[in-house]
Design a protein that fits this description.
This protein has about 240 residues and is of the alpha+beta class. About 35% of the residues lie in helices and about 30% in strands. The radius of gyration is 25 Å and the shape is elongated.
């Protein structure tokens, strides 16, 4: 087992202050008890990280305003699978979308192109009410299809990075300049770790999601990196820990 260090003062916690059975490590200098497994994971993350030699698809550099640590989401295998499923899903949904569009145009008195599917239900033209119902029914299927397209693009050109500048931290997830940003107080970070969440879906299948968690002393949790490979995720988590501490 790697020797754990206190996340507050950085001092090594001696073996006599470690209780493996109860998962407790006690720092006498801070008079503070820690979860041993969390400290051990943190030590493992930092021990295997060389900031100057990131793995393929990851980076660590300074742009003049702060330090940027990140990695690409690129995964050709995952992208190929998503592309195949997206084409299948959206191909089926598009037929019903065209029917809904045809019904909408006909109810608006607009001529429908000959190549459109006929907006007919049970031998009668679609009424306004039935057209509205069809759009409502199709909405979740359309959103799922768009989400799959977004995930496919992310697997080709997406990225996650953490920018640390003085006391401000910014997490970006997206493609190019398009994406979402979350801010946190870099001077108040309590822990950076990798969490592995597992659950069972409605069909009884086991699902798993692994991500990086940046936790501040106020209890704010910033989760990131779920789309990164395991190697890139470990590098980003370990590099952020090293930069912050």
């Amino acid at each position: 087992m790697l020797t754990p260090t206190c996340s507050r003062c950085g001092k090594v916690i001696p073996s006599e202050d470690i209780n493996v059975a109860n998962d407790v490590a006690y720092c006498r200098a801070c008079n503070l008890s820690h979860q041993l497994s969390a400290l051990t994971q943190a030590t493992e993350l930092e021990a295997g990280i060389d900031l100057s030699h990131p793995p393929a698809g990851a980076w660590h550099h300074s742009d003049g305003t702060g330090v940027v640590i990140g990695a690409t989401h690129r995964s050709l295998g995952t992208a190929t699978g998503l592309l195949a499923f997206s084409l299948f899903w959206n191909g089926i949904v598009s037929v019903f979308v065209l029917v809904a569009i045809a019904g909408t145009l006909r109810n608006l008195g607009v001529r429908v192109p000959d190549w459109f599917p006929a907006p007919v239900m049970n031998g009668s033209p679609m009424s306004v009410g039935l057209t509205i119902f069809l759009w409502i029914f199709l909405t979740p299927f359309i959103l799922i299809g768009l989400a799959m397209i977004g995930a496919f693009l992310s697997c080709l050109a997406g990225r996650t990075d953490v920018r640390i500048s003085n006391a401000e931290g910014v997490v970006f997830t997206g493609i190019g300049t398009l994406g979402y940003r979350r801010r946190f107080d870099a001077s108040a970070v309590k822990d950076v770790r990798i969490d592995d969440k597992q659950w069972r879906d409605s069909d009884g299948g086991r699902q798993r999601k692994t991500y990086i968690v940046i936790e501040t002393r106020e209890g704010k949790l910033v989760k990131l990196g779920s789309m990164l490979t395991e190697e890139r995720r470990k590098y980003v988590a370990g590099a952020v820990r090293k930069v912050l501490w």
